[in-house]
Specification:
The complex is a heterodimer. By secondary structure, chain A is mostly helical. In chain A, about 70% of the residues lie in helices and about 0% in strands. The chains are: A mainly alpha, B alpha+beta. Chains A and B meet through helix 1, helix 2, helix 5, helix 6 and helix 7 of A and helix 1, strand 2, helix 2, helix 3 and helix 4 of B.
């Protein structure tokens, strides 16, 4: 294999003109949705409806409709929460961290990944709220002056969570919107429909492509990226504190923050690849979201997957090395106890199968890639399930040991969250440009001035 | 038509190199009010246009630090001043545990401030009525063309000169852009007022329904309507039917010692005054004495009631008998009452009773001092003043 590393691989395949880029990206917005779109939407809406029914029934009857009970007081709700927050991490990582690292290939996928972040955090936000006894009083989580003279407990990881997730959501949304402003300007100037023009004008805020604006805009974008980078690390760190700050064996470990962050990036990239495979096919964006991009993401998946695998091993090592019999019991019980099936699903999905991505052929074959990333998604859901449930189900008193079995409402709520996520993704693809037009144009060939007077 | 005011002259180019060249030319000629419009930021344009680096970073820093300070100070105040509580054995100001919230607030405030400041003050957005909007020029530069615009309010601006400059630069489309003619809008338009009224009614109606009706529908249940035994409710479980349990005989409330001679004519062994006659205690005693005792006993305890015979006058507190009493005896009278005087136990707390006794002693001393004692006291006061 002779690869010339002195030459940067072009971000866009082929020689597409800038006008062609605009046309390609805006095409789904200009055309009326076709039959396939409505079929897909009806499927996701059905899933969403299942979730709505399950959650309504939960509100009516209380959390008793779920399968959790002592000693497993936390099960699907926290599992789903951590799962979705984790998925949300890829977007900000791609848009912020790769931006700071000057990775040009991020431009093709950044917008989509950011949108997925926002939708995933929305899905995640549902679970902490609905698992409280009276979810309509969720406002109590915020520190506001009240008649009891009480404040929230600022030293509690659960309150940190409220701050972290809401800040993450707000900052991601702002970051996404700032990226969208120039694109709204493009859409405003392209469209012929009066209604669309009004809507795009309102959202573009009157963007004029002025270089005097671009200068501040680029600065602001870099500042936001600079903030979003530690933020993305902090959010999953704080989510891991929900476990690590407690004193339950199996949770009370210092490896949790880096381990959770690696897992979050792992699952997030897997979800981005899953969805992008379909998006680039359906919307003919193969030239903009290229196989190279997917391959690069697959490389990150294999790296983070191995980091997660290292964390699994290290947990066992520390359990043995600590000499703490409770810690040792929990880990032996995790791998060989009643939930061994879940543990081994997790290990094979997250550590063993992604190793196939070492092979270049598999990294660049769409069907193989799709199967692997879906397996990774399943594995990462099981990781959170294993951490939560296996640490709880055999606590210090053997007389109260139990076995958690999810009810139909647990499963329905999980299905509903997928319904919500994919409904939002589908609506997004038809309402907003799935690729940042102004960014992708900037990295197209010949888009930047040749600095030394036309030296080619 | 003089109503149409010229905004500026625009020129379009096909390649980024051309617009870079045009911008550097315009800049060299000394134009200040001009702008380059490109579909995406062009590298190196800042240098060509000689723009100063954006100062947005300083704003971000100052708002970020404000967020940090606000979060830390607020948590300090809430957790150690307003409602101090020991949680998990941590100190009231548990800095490590405050870091996550501090970080999040910092990021949140800095991000929002940066973006809002940039949009509102640097870009002056929203501004959908800018003259450049809806021009063929704007449509071109948001697509794949590159443009430059020299504004009419530049001191060097002359239509012919700029036009020929753009032609020299080989622009493929030169266009004059005018300010749009904006019709003044009236606030007291009937349609607008009607809209306001409808919005007002809808908002208040929805708020009323939500806060007063909807939140009390099932499944929204409240703790006050829960099925549970409350303080005065009947119990079907306990034999005596009381919801509340009676405390064990002899149970004493926290921080409360019962008065052991209650109801007796006189204390068996009078208690001693537990308070020292400090300034504060005497002040408190005076206040309580004037409020509760003076209506009958008089302001100086001489038995000169203010009640004008509506209630029998009590004897003077300066009698030999009362002066000879121990503090505990006076305490006993305050708690139990005497003759027609009722008990003042519910009006005065234990400390207040003892403070009142100190004050009565001071009154007695002042009223019955011997001349030599008065001289002594005066000397003491003078020496205090001298100090």
């Amino acid at each position: 294999m002779n690869i010339d590393y002195s030459q940067e691989v072009p971000v866009i395949e082929g020689r597409i003109t800038l006008a062609e880029i605009d046309r390609l990206i805006a095409k789904p917005l200009d055309e009326k949705p076709n039959k396939k779109f409505f079929i897909a939407l009806s499927i996701t809406l059905t899933l969403l409806l299942i979730g709505v029914i399950c959650v309504s029934y939960l509100f009516f009857r209380g959390t008793g409709v779920w399968g959790l009970n002592q000693p497993v007081g936390w099960a699907f709700d926290i599992t789903n929460f951590v799962f979705w927050v984790g998925i949300g991490h890829a977007g900000t990582l791609i848009s912020a961290v790769l931006y700071l690292l000057r990775q040009k290939w991020r431009t093709g996928i950044a917008r989509f990944a950011e949108a997925m972040t926002i939708f995933a955090v929305m899905c995640a936000g549902i679970f902490p709220v609905i698992h409280t006894g009276r979810p309509w009083l969720a406002g109590y989580l915020l520190p506001y002056p009240n008649q009891h003279g009480l404040w929230v407990n600022f030293t509690s990881p659960l309150v940190w969570d409220v701050f972290a997730v809401s800040t993450y959501f707000t900052v991601s949304l702002v970051f996404w919107y700032v990226g969208l402003i120039p694109d709204f300007g493009v859409l405003r100037d392209r469209t012929a429909s009066k209604l669309k023009k009004t809507i795009y004008s309102v959202f573009s805020l009157g963007w004029r492509n002025s270089h005097r604006n671009w200068q501040h805009y680029e600065k602001a974008y870099m500042l936001l990226a600079g903030f979003a980078t530690p933020l993305v690390l902090s959010v999953h760190t704080i989510v891991s504190f929900d476990f690590a700050v407690s004193i339950i064996p199996g949770w009370h470990t210092t490896i949790f923050p880096p381990y959770f962050v690696a897992g979050a990036i792992f699952s997030g990239f897997a979800m981005v690849v899953t969805v992008l495979i379909f998006v680039r096919k359906v919307f003919d964006l193969q030239a903009i979201i290229t196989l190279d991009h997917l391959e690069k993401m697959n490389k990150i998946i294999v790296v983070t997957g191995s980091m997660v695998g290292y964390a699994y091993g290290m947990e066992f090592f520390i359990a043995w090395y600590s000499g703490n019999p409770f810690e040792q019991f929990v880990f032996i019980n995790r791998a060989f106890g009643p939930y061994a099936w879940a543990y081994w699903i997790m290990v094979s999905c997250n550590v063993i199968i992604p190793q196939l991505f070492w092979i270049k052929k598999i990294r660049r074959t769409i069907p193989a890639m799709l199967v692997i990333v879906i397996i990774v998604n399943i594995g990462m859901w099981f990781e959170r399930f294993v951490i939560t449930v296996t640490s709880l189900h055999r606590d210090f008193l053997p007389s109260s040991w139990g076995y958690f079995i999810p009810t139909i409402f647990d499963l329905g709520t999980l299905i509903g969250s997928f319904g919500l996520f994919f409904t939002l993704v589908l609506l997004f693809t038809k309402t907003l440009p799935v690729v940042a037009m102004s960014e992708i144009k900037a990295v197209a060939e010949g888009a930047q001035p040749s600095h030394h007077g036309g030296q080619h | 038509m003089s109503a149409k005011k010229l905004y500026g002259l625009t020129a379009l180019f096909n390649t980024p190199d051309e617009v870079v060249h045009a911008a550097s030319k315009v800049n060299q000629l000394g134009y200040k009010h001009y702008d380059v419009h490109t579909p995406y930021p062009l590298h190196g344009m800042d240098a060509v246009m000689k723009l100063k680096p954006s100062k947005l970073g300083y704003l971000t820093l100052s708002f970020g630090l404000t967020g940090t300070a606000f979060a830390l100070l607020f948590m300090y105040w809430a957790m150690s001043k307003d409602y101090p509580m020991i949680i998990g054995g941590k100190p009231f100001f548990a800095l490590p545990a405050f870091i996550p919230v501090t970080f999040e607030v910092t990021v949140l405030l800095a991000t929002l401030a940066t973006v809002i400041w940039m949009l509102a003050f640097y870009f002056k957005f929203p501004s959908n009525s800018h003259p450049l909007h809806d021009t063929p020029y704007m449509k071109a530069v948001s697509g794949d063309k590159y443009g430059i615009c020299i504004e009419a309010d530049d001191v060097l601006f002359e239509v012919e000169k700029v036009n020929s400059l753009f032609k020299d630069l080989k622009s493929y489309a030169i266009e004059e852009v005018y300010f749009p003619i904006i019709e003044p809008t009236k606030i007291f338009e009937p349609k607008f007022l009607l809209l306001l009224a409808v919005i007002g009614i809808l908002t208040s109606g929805a708020t009323y329904l939500t806060l007063n009706k909807i939140i009390y529908l099932p499944p929204f249940d409240w703790m006050m309507t829960q099925k549970k035994v409350t303080a005065q409710s009947k119990s079907l479980f306990y034999a005596n039917g009381f919801g509340m349990r009676k405390p064990v005989d002899g149970t004493v409330a926290r921080n409360f010692l019962p008065y052991e001679y209650k109801g007796l004519a006189a204390p068996v062994v009078p208690l001693g005054n537990p308070l020292a006659p400090s300034n504060e205690v005497l002040k408190l005693g005076k206040k309580r004495f004037l409020t509760f005792c003076s209506p009958c006993h008089g302001n100086f305890g001489e038995g000169d009631s203010r009640l004008r015979g509506q209630f029998p006058n009590p004897p003077s507190l300066h009698s030999e008998k009362v002066r000879g009493w121990q503090d505990g005896n006076i305490y006993h009278v305050i708690v139990n009452g005497q003759n027609v005087m009722p008990s003042y136990a519910s009006q005065l707390s234990r400390d207040e009773r003892w403070a009142v006794i100190h004050y009565i002693r001071a009154l007695q001393k002042a009223k019955n001092a011997s001349p030599s004692e008065i001289i002594e006291a005066k000397k003491e006061i003078l020496s205090n003043v001298a100090k």
